[in-house]
Amino acid sequence: QVQLVESGGGLVQPGGSLRLSCATSGNIFSISNMGWYRQAPGKERDLVASITTGGRTNYADPVKGRFTISRDNAKNTVYLQMNSLKPEDTGVYYCNADRLDWPRVNYWGQGTQVTVSS
């Protein structure tokens, strides 16, 4: 069974940092592009950052220069390092796995809350 489990969220002051982790199981990590999404209250779930199986990254404009996505293939884990956090970064962050082989499906974690407030 495929599982994605996020951790590392919490309450942080503006300007602070957090590192989110997403541990995967079910033998899908090596064949999946990975991504982090977030959903703020009253808004749609939007892509924050993604990384391919080959290590190529992409970032949403609001987080460029502040966030870094990475993956550890030996640990089947993807990370999101978040620096210089702003109140508008507040939301539930979800880990996503885009499976590249058949069946071509997406998997989601349960989400982890990030709150940026003074």
Helical content band? under 10%
β-sheet strand percentage:
over 45%
What is the strand tally?
Answer: 11
Helix/sheet category: mainly beta
With helices defined by DSSP (H or I, 4 residues minimum), what is the helix count? 0
In the predicted model, the low-confidence regions spanning at least 5 consecutive residues are: none
Which sequence of SSEs, written as H and E, runs from N to C? EEEEEEEEEEE
Distance between the terminal alpha carbons, to the nearest Å?
40 Å
Question: What Rg, in angstroms, do the CA atoms define?
Answer: 14 Å
Average pLDDT works out at: 97
Oligomer: single chain
How would the global form be characterised?
A: globular
Described by strand count, sense and barrel closure, the largest sheet is: 7 strands, mixed
Keywords:
mainly beta, four-stranded antiparallel sheet, 118 residues
What does this structure look like?
The chain is mostly beta strands and 118 residues long. Helix content is 0%, strand content 53%. The chain is built from no helices and eleven strands. The strands form two sheets. Strands 2, 4, 5, 6, 9, 10 and 11 form a seven-stranded mixed β-sheet that branches. Strand 9 and strand 10 form a beta hairpin. The N and C termini lie far apart (40 Å). The model has no long low-confidence stretch (mean pLDDT 97).
In short:
With 118 residues, the chain is mainly β. It contains no helices and eleven strands.
Record the SSE blueprint.
Elements: E1 3-7, E2 10-12, E3 18-25, E4 32-39, E5 46-51, E6 57-59, E7 67-72, E8 77-82, E9 91-99, E10 106-108, E11 112-116
Parallel strand pairs: 2-11
Antiparallel strand pairs: 1-3, 3-8, 4-5, 4-9, 5-6, 7-8, 9-10, 9-11
